[in-house]
Design brief:
Helices cover 33% and strands 21% of the residues. By secondary structure, the chain is an alpha/beta fold. Helix 3 runs parallel beside helix 4. The site of zinc ion has 8 residues, from loops.
Amino acid sequence: MRTVERIALRLRELAGSVLERIPGPPSSRPFLCPVCGHRVRSFHPLPRYYEHQLRACGCPYGFEDSETLNWRQYSCRRCGASDRDRLMALYLREMFPSGRSAAPLLLVDFAPAPPLSAALRRVAGLQYRTADLMMPGVDDRVDLAALPYEERSLDAFVCSHVLEHVPDDRAALRELFRVLKPGGWGILLVPIVLAAREIDEDAGPLSAAERWRRFGQDDHVRLYSKQGFLDRVRSAGFRVAELGAAHFGEETFYRSGVAPRSVLYVVTRR
Ligand SMILES: [Zn+2]
């Protein structure tokens, strides 16, 4: 990101946080972040840098082609949670009503997003662990394609926006299935481009500009079509549920700053 864009973004964040501290009636804050629980006037839009990069590198897809992306209302002014973090929080609220786990569960959060991670740490009765290959401060240093956990040892996992970085995502999916207990569940999210007809992937040496053009970001190794993603997840053995506005409610989506056609993928092992 260029310096001028960083400064503009920081100024906008500062202005937003000042506005949020001014008391006002709830109607002036129509949105409610399900991650931090604060009412907000709006969410921050996704920095324009991403759009500029996609255009500059000749990517044929834009934000409007994404399945789950609210670029106009992207990040929470209070906790920084993205729209996908807020979508996941809606589901986790169903699984852990009143902030409690009915039974002691082991949940591993791969490449944890800090705002959601903080919320999960507050769930009573949940044995929560974080895991990543490179991120500092996580509980477990793991390669997703060769997980260090015992077979059928996890009750649940969160794996959001990780697989598009992993060279062998089929191996990673097989590993996630292996370590999940029968009856367990996982949240599995990747950036899906609805206009893409099939998966495009290349983990070999490519320029950053080529990765932006083909995969939408310079550290991605593939771009997922919806069907391609579903096929790979099912091939690993998972059952997949697609939870959207019909499940959570259109009003809940709007209030949480989640775009109407967003979909949460919840996988289970029978
Ligand atoms: Zn928040």
